[in-house]
Amino acid sequence: MGEAVIEVRGLRKRYGELEAVRGVDLRIERGEVFALLGPNGAGKTTTVEILEGHRDRSAGDVSVLGYDPGRHEVALKERTGVVLQQTGLEPYLTVAETVDMFRGYYPRPLPLDEILEVVGLKEQRDQRVRRLSGGQQRRLDVAVGLAGDPELLFLDEPTTGFDPTARRGAWAMIRNLRELGKTVLLTTHYLDEAQALADRVAIMVRGEIVAEDTPAGLVAADADAVIRFRAPEGAAVPENLGFGEREDGLMEARTTDLTRDLHTLTSWALDEGVVLEDLTVSRLSLEDVFLRLTDEDEDESEEAS
Ligand code: ATP
Question: Which of 202, 219, 236 is the last residue of a domain?
């Protein structure tokens, strides 16, 4: 095992009657890009803000770079960078002036050129903040988070509201951060983003972590595949084949025994002379796994109530 940058045991946070974080354990190693996922209200922001030292915890042990963030030590602040969803930067300063201002707050700042290179704002160096696009402003937020050359960076929903091109740009930036050896704790609502960027992901539901693995591992742990096809006009698909019709007219079934179920389907089609149009077999995506994990929890809580 590598060196733990973040180690959390039995973390709990209560807001009055509501227990928003209910016994979370986490270990994030140096150099990892780790994504914390979960539906609205799962407790992600609460957890991350406790790690950042912005909220107190009700119970549990938390170590960030060997410090307890609850003690608000300057030495820890100097070694971490926090990129919040909304940061208010001075609109009339240029990109370089903004980053330099923040560099001035730290004992060993990262060189300006290196920061601009990593976040992809070299060409906007002398542009005023108010003239930047939304995506460029977000990258400037990250540049500011990098000013002190932090070992650990918290990135809260770094691409919310981005167009597809800007998102790809932000993804390239996060890959650059990994190459610099930074540890990144990312929260995002985009599962493709987590799948593309994260070394490991944890899925949080109702204050608990319900799954944690590499994106590929999470998908592979789910043995299911999905078979889809389009039935020709008038062809009745026997119910015992287990297919349901989707809104777009495709027939769909999940299977844990692909060989058998595909054989059953194609045997029926051959016997009946049915052409299986648009036949596809696919593994589940991280999004499918996420939806299943979060749905299961909904079902359980409905049963309980
Ligand atoms: P989102 O994806 O919507 O940002 P989240 O996973 O970050 O959600 P949290 O913001 O941590 O979730 O909230 C977890 C639960 O705690 C929610 O039910 C929320 O209403 C509640 N909560 C959060 N902050 C407070 C607070 N300061 N006081 C009381 N309740 C709070």
Answer: 219
Dihedral angle of Cα 128, 98, 150, 118, to the nearest 10 degrees: 30
What is d(CA 280, CA 273) in angstroms, rounded to the nearest whole number? 19
10 Å CB burial of residue 124 (0-12, 13-18, 19+) is buried
Distance from Cα 296 to the centre of ligand 1, integer Å:
21
Q: Do 151 and 12 share a structural domain?
A: yes
Q: What is the pLDDT along the chain (305 residues), one digit of tens a residue?
A: 789 999 999 999 999 999 999 999 999 999 999 999 999 999 999 999 999 999 999 999 999 999 999 999 999 998 999 887 767 788 999 999 999 999 999 989 999 999 998 888 999 999 999 999 888 888 899 899 899 999 999 998 888 877 888 788 889 889 988 998 999 999 988 888 999 999 999 999 999 999 999 988 888 776 678 899 998 888 888 888 889 998 888 999 988 888 999 999 999 999 999 999 999 998 778 888 888 888 765 555 544 44
Residue 298: inside a domain: no
| Domains: count for the chain | 2
What predicted TM-score, i.e. pTM, was given to this entire model? Answer: 0.83
**Ligand 1 probe mutation, 45, 50, 208, most atoms within 8 A of CB:** 45
Task: Answer yes or no: do 118 and 158 share one domain.
Answer: yes
255 Cα–ligand 1 center, Å: 36
> 213 and 242: one domain?
no
Residue to mutate, 17, 44, 208, ligand 1, most ligand atoms under 8 Å from C-beta: 44
Task: Indicate whether 237 belongs to any domain.
Answer: yes
Ligand 1 centroid to Cα of residue 10, in Å, is 18
